[in-house]
Specification:
Number of helices: 13
Oligomer: single chain
Radius of gyration: 34 Å
Distance between the termini: 48 Å
Strand content: 5-15%
Strand order of the largest sheet: 3-2-1-4-5-6
Structural class: alpha/beta
Shape: elongated
Helix content: 40-55%
Order of helices and strands: HHHEHEHEHEHEHEHHEHHEEEH
Number of strands: 10
Amino acid sequence: MRRFALRFAWILGFAVLLVVAGTAAFHFIAGWGIEDSLWMTIITVSAVGYEEVRPMSPATELIAAFLLIGGITMMGLWFAVLTSAIVEMDLAQVFRIRRKMKKIEQLKNHVVVCGAGRTGRQVVRELTEADTPYLVVERSAERAEYLHREFPDALVLVEDATRDETLVVARIGTARGLVACLSQDTDNLFVCLSARDLQPNLNIVARAYDEQTMQKLYIAGADHVVSPNLTGGIRMAAMMLRPEVVSFLDVVTRGDGLTLRLEEIRIHAGSTIAGKTLSEARIPQKTGLIVIAIRHLDQRGREGPWSYNPGPQEEVRVGDVMIVMGNTDQIVLLHREAQP
């Protein structure tokens, strides 16, 4: 944009110089008054074809010829720069879209966030804090632009999330989860149906304004359904009855300036801590994390009950999920230990 502004400034400066030089030439060489000289210069430079203000002499005809050549040159430059600006802006938009689509095509193990309203922006804020890749699908270009102002690096697809084609473009086949937080419960219902059909193993979290819609969202394929009214009421009661507990949970779950975080860690095959007891794994000593709970898989590969405050002899197995508490750097260390 600064490049175009500089070009326009040069053309404007050339036009002013041409008018000043022409006015001075008519005034000093031909002896015309300033008003006549200025008017003659303007109609000559702009090539409008009005009648000469005074009879022309060979000297004034020569001045007019140079002014006419300069004016036509200026007009050509003006239209060339204007056309170039329009074309380059269109091309820049095309290149931005192509770069975005390439980034989307490379996404994997990401979260698809359907909706960029207040809830969607909060989800994006939490995912950004957790350094989790995500893609936002929002049909409103205005909301998408508002989200971009707050999160410049966010990948946003301006499409209808209820369409199967949109979810395919959003790489739902390689996604780790989907959050349906559109403004209408019916839209969230359609998103859950489409997402579950396209990706049976996807983890789906949906929002329900109407509590009567919650069961329908579960039937449609949602793994978890959140009702703002229900959770808001529970939280208000908890703040009245157990304010210190709520305050502590805010510290370890909210993203604003948090120092502690609750995180889940899944143990993968080939992990250095798989097959060891917690005492042998030495997680607190190596990472500084506190292991709060652990959940094993049963013989059929299904998740069993949680084991809270596990002892040092608790064995860590492949497929287990551990809930730990600590800062971000400590969690990153354990994530590396849990990977093959």
